[in-house]
TrEMBL record:
Pfam family of the protein (one): EFR3_ARM
Name by which UniProt lists this protein: EFR3 homolog Ba (S. cerevisiae)
Organism this protein belongs to: Cyprinus carpio (Common carp)
Family statement drawn from the similarity comment of this UniProt entry: Belongs to the EFR3 family.
InterPro entries reported for this sequence: ARM-type_fold (IPR016024), EFR3-like_ARM (IPR049152), EFR3_Homologs (IPR051851)
GO cellular component, one term: plasma membrane
GO biological process: protein localization to plasma membrane
Length: 760
């Protein structure tokens, strides 16, 4: 009998209850370390004995054989370990295939010990497919005895954890992240994670240490924490499928818990990949019930809160596009009563209250996402959402983005690319959109939570009760107002002229003006705001085409604002004048004050004049004594309503050289033209077929190219003529010109005529 066999036989006692013979086990271990080439034969012989003991059955000797295999495995790290491991895994496989729960648990424990060993040599042919399948099956054990069932399931979980540890970092092994493996591992873990209330725990010390749910969560977190960029999709997709197959979206609790574990476990730079998969899954379920879609949206919202590092990846606008698409679909479903474009007998029944709940969830999620973004991206998102207007259901989503908007730099919060289209919406016919845009401007400009202190609009004798928070204007604030103030004033002025404006519009305009005064005003801005308020008074007096209510409301707005700004300037004479006018109005025309007009509509309006009006000349004189710009104060505010047109003008000098002047800004009143053009464009793009739109856009190119070509040609001619003039010898101060045609009167240099293009 070979020596290695005798050494193996000697470790088994006559009575298996006595356990492994430790002295003989030490001799076997020493022999294996001294003669590593025999290690594979030792493993094969141990496997042979263990197979006989399993078949007989003699489970005591089975346990001794597995203990010996474990000790040899832990002690030996030579190059021959691979052949020994094959024998070891064969025995583990045999134990896992046995019907006895104790043998399954024994095999699992041995595999877990093996999984924690770092091998010195790589294995090119080892496969763990069987172990993934068997451990996953054990995770779903339905054994009758609840205690044993729990032990089997926990063994399966530990086994899967061991497989992941053994293979995840070994490039030579089969990729554990492949769908064929993930589709078994992830659902098995989720099944046990879901059993928190369903499994009865035994009071034994083994199970008291850690429950199956706690073990499952730890294993799941470890799996996700090891996932690289390319593996996120394969790890998350089975989660989505599991929640679909078991209808777990509707309850929300478990689905939210799963994705909280995912978001907290994966590497932070991969978070946006999870969000993208959730959005794709939401799109795939567009025609599912509202409760399912609401559950997915709720998960997205929670994930967005966790992923608050400041960015949600390179597809920020795609995220909001998907959410807005779902919002629009929900509104369409609610209006049509069907998930299909044409209602039929097979259509699912739409539950209006569920669609409303979904819409609220989408709006909440949009706000959650926006709150994770830096200021410049929030501006882009708001501009993107505005681009969806007019679309039913879009208005509340913008409000959710601006809610809680805080920005220290107004230049970043309101860049030109965002401010220009935003202001253009203040002139739209849709009163709801105009109100929404005003609310957005208010939310962005209000950096000290002052907005609610201006509501309701009223005459306050002492504004100190408002406790306004006023800080000195920063350099960025001054730059912003220097660049954009005139556009802001113009659109506020024009917004007051909208006939469809109601009380809420005038209240929002007052709040906006108040915030500009508190947040962004320097001395120059204060002067312009006073001029604007007086211009609004003139507007109410002269625009007889406006409804009576609107004219009264504009008077009230002007009075309330001058009352506010006079107290902020702290010029006593100015405050006194405003106070006197307001007192006169209370006695003679109370309908021109906010407490009256903004509460009750008035059908007629008497002629307004005299002491009930604010006098610009007096105000200019009063403020001039305090150092304000009197000349500017005395100048009436006129909104700059201009259109840009190109005009070519020629002027011939005494030398006959045509000098071209370009371009000129021709001031034309384009308010009505602009509004009509905007309406036509919107109507065309909403109703016209694509071919007609493409043809229209193409037709506009040719005239533009012709005009540009004409301008360039004209400039070239002018430049050529100017250069030819310069090539001539200049008139000589001595009185002669060398051209061979006699003498010409000398021209002094200071009287010489040069083309305008040649003069700096």
């Amino acid at each position: 009998i070979p020596r290695y066999k005798r050494l193996v036989d000697n470790i088994f006692p006559e009575d298996p209850e006595d356990g492994l013979v430790k002295a003989n086990m030490e001799k076997l271990t020493f022999y294996a370390l001294s003669a590593p080439e025999k290690l594979d034969r030792i493993g094969a012989y141990l496997s042979e004995r263990l197979s006989r003991d399993v078949a007989r059955p003699r489970y005591g000797y089975v346990c001794i054989a597995m203990e010996a295999l474990d000790q040899l495995l832990m002690a030996c790290h030579c190059q021959s370990i691979n052949l020994f491991v094959e024998s070891f895994l064969t025995m583990v496989r045999k134990l896992l295939e046995a019907d006895k729960p104790n043998l399954q648990i024994l095999g699992t424990n041995s595999f877990v010990k093996f999984a924690n060993i770092e091998e010195d040599t790589a294995s090119y042919h080892r496969s763990y497919d069987f172990f993934v399948s068997r451990f996953s099956e054990m995770c779903h054990s339905s054994y009758e005895d609840p205690d044993i069932r729990t032990k089997i399931r926990m063994a399966g979980i530990r086994g899967l954890q061991g497989v992941v540890r053994k293979t995840v970092n070994d490039e030579l092994q089969a990729n554990i992240w492949d769908p064929q493996h993930m589709d078994k591992i992830v659902p098995s873990l989720l099944f046990n994670l879901q059993q928190e209330e369903g499994i009865e725990r035994s009071p034994s010390p083994e199970t008291e240490k850690e429950s199956p749910v706690e073990l499952t969560e730890r294993c799941f977190r470890e799996l996700l924490g090891r996932a690289a960029y390319d593996n996120i999709k394969n790890a998350v997709k089975p989660v989505l499928m599991h929640l679909d197959n078991h209808s777990l979206w509707e309850s929300k609790t478990f689905s939210v818990r799963c994705f909280k574990i995912i978001m907290y476990s994966i590497q932070s730079q991969h978070s946006h990949l999870v969000i993208q998969q959730l959005l794709g899954h939401l799109d795939a379920n567009s025609k599912n019930s509202a409760r399912v879609r609401a559950g997915i949206v709720e998960v997205i919202s929670e994930a967005a809160v966790i992923e608050a590092s400041g960015s949600i990846g390179p597809t920020v606008l795609e995220v909001f596009n998907t959410l807005l698409k779902q919002l629009r679909l929900s509104v369409d479903y609610e209006l049509t009563g069907s998930y299909d474009s044409f209602a039929n007998l097979g259509s699912k029944v739409i539950k209006v209250h569920e669609e409303r709940q979904l819409q609220e969830a989408v709006i909440k999620t949009i706000g959650s996402f926006a709150n994770t973004l830096p200021t410049y991206q929030r501006s882009e998102v708001m501009l993107f959402i505005i681009g969806k207007i007019p679309v039913p259901g879009m208005y509340p989503s913008l409000g959710s983005v601006t809610a809680g908007f805080q920005s220290t730099n107004i230049l970043t919060a309101l860049p030109t690319s965002f401010l220009d289209p935003l202001l253009s919406f203040t002139l739209m016919e849709d009163a709801e959109i105009r109100l929404l845009v005003l609310d957005i401007l208010i939310s962005i400009i209000d950096r000290h939570d002052n907005r609610h202190k201006f509501s309701p609009v009223r005459i306050i004798s002492d504004i100190s009760v408002l406790k306004l928070k006023v800080d000195k204007c920063s350099r960025q604030d001054n730059l912003f107002m220097k660049k954009h103030s005139q556009r802001l004033y113009r659109h506020i002025y024009l917004a007051c002229k909208e006939e469809s404006s109601v009380q809420r519009h005038f209240e929002s305009l007052y709040t906006l003006l108040g915030l500009i005064c508190v947040e962004l005003a320097n001395e120059e801005v204060v002067v312009d705001l006073i001029r604007l308020a007086l211009a609004l008074q003139d507007l109410a007096l002269t625009e007889e085409a406006l409804p009576v209510y609107n004219r009264c409301a504009i008077h009230a707005l002007s009075a309330a604002y001058l009352n506010l700004i006079s107290q902020l300037t702290t010029v006593p004479t100015f405050c006194q004048h405003v106070h006197e006018v307001i007192e006169s109005r209370k006695k003679l025309v109370p309908f021109l004050l906010p407490e009256d007009v903004l509460v009750e509509n008035k059908n007629t309006m008497e002629k307004v004049e005299g002491e009930v009006l604010f006098v610009q000349a007096k105000i200019a004189e009063m403020l001039g004594g305090s150092g304000y710009n009197t000349e500017r104060l005395a100048t009436s505010y006129i909104p700059q309503i201009t259109g840009l047109t190109l005009s070519l003008s020629f002027k011939y000098t005494e030398t006959g050289c045509p000098v071209i002047f370009l371009p000129f800004l021709i001031h034309v009143n384009v308010e009505e033209l602009e509004r009509e053009r905007r309406r036509q464009v919107v109507e065309r793009f909403q109703t016209a077929p694509f071919e007609e739109i493409a043809a229209h856009c193409g037709a506009r190119v040719s005239p533009m190219l012709y005009c540009l070509s004409h301008v360039i040609d004209t400039c070239s001619i002018s430049l050529s003529l100017s250069l030819s003039l310069l090539d001539r010898p200049p008139p000589s101060p001595s009185g002669s010109v060398g051209n061979g045609h006699g003498r010409t009167r000398s021209v002094p240099v200071y009287e010489m005529k040069f083309p305008d293009l040649c003069v700096y």
